[in-house]
Model the fold of this input.
Amino acid sequence: MKYSYFPGCSLKGLGRSYEESLLPVMKHLGVELAELDDWNCCGATAYMSVDEGKAAVLAARNLAIAEKAGPEDLMTPCSACYLVLNKTQHNIADYPEINETVRRALGSAKLAYNGTVKVRHPLDMLINDIGLDVIKEKVVRPLKGLKVAPYYGCQVVRPYATFDDAWNPTTMDRLLATLGAEVVPYPLKTKCCGGSLTGTVPEAGLRLTYILLKEAVRRGADVIATVCPLCQFNLDAYHDQIEQRWGPARVATVYFSQLMGLAFGLAPEQLGLKRNFIPMKPLPAQQPAQKISV
Amino acid sequence: MNTNNSNGDVRIGFYICHCGHNIAGMVDCAAVAQYISKLPGVAVSRDYKYMCSDPGQELIQQDIREHKLNRVVVASCSPLLHEHTFRTAVAAGGLNPYFFQMVNIREHDSWVHTDRAEATAKAKSLAHAAVCRVRFHRALETTRVPINPDVLVVGGGIAGIHAALTVANSGKKVFLVERDPSIGGHMAQFDKTFPTLDCAACILTPKMSAVRAHDNITLWTYSEIVKVSGYVGNYTVTVKRKPRYVNEELCVGCLECINACIFKEAKFADEFNVGLSKRKPIYIPFAQAVPPVVVIDPERCLQVRTGKCKKTCLEACADRKAIDFAQKEELVEIKVGNIIVATGFKLFDAKRIPEYGYGLYPNVVTAIELERLVNSSGPTAGEIVLRDGHPPKSVGMILCVGSRDLKTNRWCSRTCCMHSMKLAQLVREHTDADVTVFYMDIRAPGKGYEEFYDKSLKEGIQFVRGRVAEVTDWAMAPEEEGKLVIRVEDTLAGFVRRIPVDMIVLAAGMEPQADAQAVRRMFNMSCGTEGWFLEKHPKLAPVSTFTDGVFIAGCCQGPKDIPDAVAQAGAAAAEAMALADKGFIEQEPNTAYIVEADCSGCKSCLPLCPYTAILFDDATQKARIIQALCKGCGTCVAACPSGSIQQNLFEDEEIFSEIEGVLAYV
Done:
């Protein structure tokens, strides 16, 4: 199974542990990933809100490179990248004037985009292409007794509910259950993590983060599983400030891919688990992990 | 061929109608009249404000007399509306009514175009075609076909019951066919009815009993229509009678067999109580079921499924011998003249809106579930309780669940506001709970309905205006612990609220039945885009369909409450009786006929006729068309390899000259 791969800035920076865990997990599942050559910033939500036309150009360049690279679907793990690339696809198709701006801009760099790239989220690939039965076969260290709150964040299912329900997504729930984890009911699974407000208006942003953490604790979760670098950062990095304002709500937040790696028997240090501010408690009765070269 | 009514030449009168601004607003009527006046054979060409008015019709008659017209063309609206009007006027003027042709320049032209010059050109072109074709019209006569007075009513809810009783009371025979084991429909599940709060069973069960007792009604429950053929006045209908494994004549409803069933525990979801209670494989749908006899669920009964049961039910029934495992599905053919379709609705599945938590949180229930809880014959004997058996201290009711919602159903289900307010009052009556109703708009437009809303307000029921965002068990404050929290933007107060309650009632809306499309095809009806059966005219023919002799009543036509359903049922019954009492139908002469000299006897037309109207005459070795059965669909005309089948009003000369006429104006 082959895919091209658009990491985006997060997976090389703040969200490094997402890539560090996702690549070996995908390899373990026999998935071949080819990182796009010379990819650039997706534009993120910030640029989109300033100038949709120009933001589309930025994103479309990545799509054009992916289209040129081959017919494979494009794996886009970061929620913001996933949304922006999807939104750009829609904008190019629905708005002739944006399409024209993009066409001209790409043309000046001797590039073109014909709209054929399929942007795929890893969760979508895991559930719909690879399949839970295949994943189950790879589980050597079931996450028995580990209570996980599945947290999807907003961007992966909104506004485009491409592979899961916008209100009650369940792909990660099913994936975690397949790994042997106990999925706690988590009604806040698509609520706002605070986004960039944690940096700009902390009073408002951190309150939203706190609500998520507190509810996970209230539900008895050992760990929160997420799919988004910004969510992971917000839920992990501000515990001191949150504690000062509202009291403790201490629970670790990791990527679903890190939990997959653990269940597949990969070594924690191979999965970027050391990078967390709030470390995940070690699994009980840890079995020896196998080493896999990346 | 003699194409003239008189001895002289063809003299055509042409009339173009302004239809107020409907046509004249987009078509230059005077210019069209002027253009047509110059065509050969046109004796008179006029434009007039309303051709369908009495003076308009009188104008045609007067011109026929004064100008010795022998052909008439009217350019106006759809022939569906006024072809009959103008044919009658032409006949009153002394001409055969089929020396008339109508041109639709309203629906086909003025209403659908925005350029006046182009619309006028199109009107000229269409009118030209009609003037060319009418020259070849011949004098034709209608024929009369007798009507079978018997009526079939499909569906035994309140609409079907009322229609059946009305027709039967007039002395006509009625077949009432119901899919479920008992008649009664949704109304039988209700506790009280708005706005009078009279008991639903008290007003419904006498009518159900009357159906069973009526000499003129043949009641077939647990039966479905599988085939309909024929035409108005003469339908042949095949009814599938499913085996209930109980002889309806012999069973007295003593229910001994149920007690004796090998299944000691009732363990299967009870349909009547929407799964809130359990039943056995042998059961009676509900206490007042009509017919009051038991039924065996073939999916659950050990004997039916495996043939290996001790059959303790048979022992209990003893000498009555009412239980009969040898029953087989039967197909029965009946003949009726008119059909009333009253197949009802299905409730919206609240699970389709996951944010309201139905199926996830046990104390989120639907309105119909609360209806059963509050009913004294229901699973809790009339106690409104949570799943843990305690009475709720607070209840939230969410309106427009699957109604007025672009993501699910766009339409208003019309009954949920009143239904929810009724349930709110009943909750207040039965418990100490606070009740909050979450609404977008309260729609209470019936007689006594606004007063009912007033009463609800005075009884202390809270109303919060806003579409509920979600139902969650995510508690943010101590008073929310263990409760269901309704998150809603209160659009009157202007902020987002969190309201904790014990029980949530979802007013699930109405949807067309799952098999509405199949039923529609079977009875040759039309559907609107939403799937409700389409009436012939939304205002002036609300219970008729586009198929003569097939009428609709109740919620299969669209969401409505009991008073409206009953009113429609009465109207449908009256329409059917009016046709039946007339005794005959006049058949249009637009039928096909064989030009015998040209028929080679190849028989290719025979299997094509959907109405089996074509026979093969062995003596002459030629095909023959039975005029009474022919519906004028034209299939055989198009298919005949030798061109020996012609159709009245659609003969080759008429069609070709019409085409020439359209093309003449460029």
Observations:
- The interface with chain A takes residues 353-355, 470, 472-476 of chain B (CB under 8 Å).
- Residues 1-7 of chain B have pLDDT under 50 and may be disordered.
- The two ends of chain B are 31 Å apart (CA to CA).
